[in-house]
Structure formats: structure tokens, C-alpha cells
Amino acid sequence: NAGVTQTPKFQVLKTGQSMTLQCAQDMNHEYMSWYRQDPGMGLRLIHYSVGAGITDQGEVPNGYNVSRSTTEDFPLRLLSAAPSQTSVYFCASSYSNGGTEAFFGQGTRLTVV
Amino acid sequence: SQQGEEDPQALSIQEGENATMNCSYKTSINNLQWYRQNSGRGLVHLILIRSNEREKHSGRLRVTLDTSKKSSSLLITASRAADTASYFCATSPGKLVFGKGMKLTVNP
Questions:
Q1: Interface of chain A toward chain B, CB-CB under 8 angstroms
Q2: Residue B66 burial class via C-beta count within 10 angstroms: exposed 0-12, middle 13-18, buried 19 and up
Q3: How many CB atoms lie within 10 A of CB A26?
Q4: Whole-angstrom distance, CA of residue B95 vs CA of residue B102
Q5: Is residue B97 exposed (0-12), middle (13-18) or buried (19+ Cβ within 10 Å)?
Q6: What is the rounded CA–CA span in Å between residue A100 and residue A79?
Q7: Does the beta-carbon distance from B95 to A4 stay under 8 Å?
Q8: What is the nearest CA distance from B75 to chain A, expressed in angstroms?
Q9: pLDDT value at position A12?
Q10: How far is residue A75's CA from residue A69's CA, in Å, rounded to a whole number?
Q11: What span, in angstroms and rounded, lies between the C-alpha atoms of A58 and A61?
Q12: Which residues, 6 or more positions from B3, have their beta carbon under 8 angstroms from its beta carbon?
């Protein structure tokens, strides 16, 4: 039982490049979400999903796309990376939307130069 | 926008002492959760308290919730160096909204 797995752990991108951050969970959780963590800002919600085929925007969705084709996977796509997207990204999953504890991945540290 | 706000933002204590962290929030909640984050790691769930509960215990952790004041406190008793971490409160209904966190340092 691996929990929530994020890949890669570290990534450096050039401005304008695109990439996908991967997130997978093996707990059969319906609810998955992506957060970014910046110094002094805490965690801010980017996108979330309440089940396969259903996604919605969080607090800071601009510049990011998501899809949820399976219960297990919830990838986050950066369309055209900008230095402002330099951050640590966390994926989380839970049994329900806010009603139960959330399980977090170990994070992806992204630097955009 | 952040719902919860932890106070103090940083706390430094000696091993064996108790640590108290406070969280204030703005709107009605279904539950409030506390998480710990060790440096460079993901968040780990500590405890969840529902809006109809006033106090909850888990090991050395004690959480209280005052919905009339829209506030919660997390007490860690007999702290250890291993408790050094950042602590976050998060509120629900719906998607979890996190505060900015507070940094606890426990000196051996």
C-alpha cells in the first residue's frame, strides 16, 4: 500500500516549456486535489476532483490543467511554465471531499528559470 | 483565500514543555483538521474535530474547538525534539482550505 505517489520529486523547467506532474493513489479514494506551497503562503488549492471524469478549479487554477480518467490518477499539467510557477506541488487524496483525513504525496519541487 | 490562520507563526520551546497553537477561521465549518509537515516532506494528518465536538484527544495531542469564537487550539504535551515541524489547520465544508502554518521548534 504505497498511499499517494508523486513523480518527479524535483524538476527544472525553462520558461515556456510544458510538463506533467504525476499523482497516483492506491486507496480507492474518490477525492483528489493539487496544492502549491509557497513560502509564507501556506497551501493553496489549484484543482480538485470528486471522482473520475469530474474536475473543478480551486483558488489558483490559472496556468494549470487537470484531468481524471481513472480513480487512481490525477495528473497536473503546466501548459507554458512561468517563473511564478516555481513552487512545491502536493497532491492529496481522501475518501470524501473534506469530511475525512487527506493523505499527501511527498511533493514535487519545481523550479522555472 | 486562506480560511484558517495559525497563531503564533513561530514557537520555540524546550523538550518536555507543552506547545499550544491556535487557529482562527472565518466561515462556518463541518470540521477542522490539524496537519504536521516535517521539513521537505508532505503533510501528515494529526487529528480531525467535527463542528459538534468541543474537545478531542489523540496520544499527546489535545484539540479544542469553539465554533462561537471560530477558533481551535492544538496542544502538544511533553514535547519532543521530533515534534519540530510546521503545523497547519485546515477547514471544511467541501474542499480543505489550509492556513499559512506555524513553525514549532523543540530544543533538546
A1: 4, 33, 35, 40-45, 48, 58-59, 90, 92, 97-107
A2: exposed
A3: 13
A4: 21
A5: buried
A6: 32
A7: no
A8: 19
A9: 98
A10: 10
A11: 6
A12: B25, B26, B27, B90, B91, B97, B98, B99
B33 chain-A contacts, CB cut-off 8 A: 101-102
Question: Could you tell me which residues come within 8 angstroms of residue A39 by beta carbon, excluding any fewer than 6 positions away?
Answer: none
According to DSSP H, which parts of chain A are helical?
none
Min CA distance, B44 vs chain A (Å)? 7
Q: What is the pLDDT of residues A32-58, one digit of tens each?
A: 999 999 988 889 999 999 999 999 999
- Residue A109 burial class via C-beta count within 10 angstroms: exposed 0-12, middle 13-18, buried 19 and up: middle
Tens of pLDDT, residue by residue over B56-95, are: 999 999 999 999 999 999 999 999 999 999 999 999 877 8
Proportion of chain B above pLDDT 70, given as a percent: 97
Closest by Cβ to A59, choosing from B1, B33, B35 = B1
Q: What is the pLDDT of residue A96?
A: 82
- Cβ distance of B43 and A90 shorter than 8 Å: yes
Within 10 angstroms of residue B81's Cβ, the number of other Cβ atoms is 11
Q: Which residues of B touch chain A, with CB atoms under 8 Å apart? A: 1-2, 30-31, 33, 35, 40-45, 48, 88, 90, 92-101
Q: Determine what percent of chain A is predicted with pLDDT higher than 90.
A: 89
Instruction: Report d(CA B21, CA B89) in Å as an integer.
Output: 10
